[in-house]
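This section describes the prediction task in plain terms. A model, or a person checking by hand, is given the sequence of a single protein chain and must write out its three-dimensional structure as a string of tokens. No templates, partner chains or ligands are provided. The sample shown here is typical of the held-out split.
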Amino acid sequence: MSKQQVSFFWFRRDLRLEDNVGLFHALKSKYTVIPLFIFDDAILDSLPYNDPRVGFIYENLSKINTQLLKIESALLVKKGKTLAVWELLLTEFDIKEVFFNKDYEPYAIKRDSAICELLETNNAIPFSFKDQVIFEEKEITKADGLPYTVYTPFKNKWLEKYKSMAPVLEYDATDVFSNFHKCDFVFPSLEQIGFEKSPIKVKPHNLKFIANYQDIRDFPALDQTSYLSPHLRFG
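The expected answer:
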């Protein structure tokens, strides 16, 4: 019996269903979309068993899965070496397309290159998108095309280009959520992934102090930061 042809959207540093560029394009494709997250052993193996970052990721994945259950879909969560996970998925599903948002760190670039080669070898087309940044590395350069090595000129060029660019689009895919694959994948517990709940909790982000940054930035004892960092880090 032939397997149903599907697309995959691979969550990485973009843990949200709203305003997600790669997910938007995935849901506009001709195949139903299986949402995937991989807990990567290459990253996890060096972390303590109660690492708060893993707990934060897990909590956000759980929220995504809860949203998906309301539309009779579910998040497929895997753990292992990323290449091996994709090799297995290619045997379990007839994967035609894989969508993901770009990551710019050295390990991620090397990993994604290997995954794309594997997908193409198996007749699955990878599609990558700019999502987590306003400008990519080659979009802000000196006049000679080389990257900046001094921050202030880079900042000035960044602001100049930002002020002249078109408004940033918001990618609302709610009208095509029906294109998520109907499935009932079992969402694992944190313990099944090999971790435990951390006593350290990531606080909700709070934007009310940002307008006062100039006045309070030199007083680190004040609890008046935005707590945006982990939310920006993991999308």
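For orientation: The first helix runs from residue 21 to 27.
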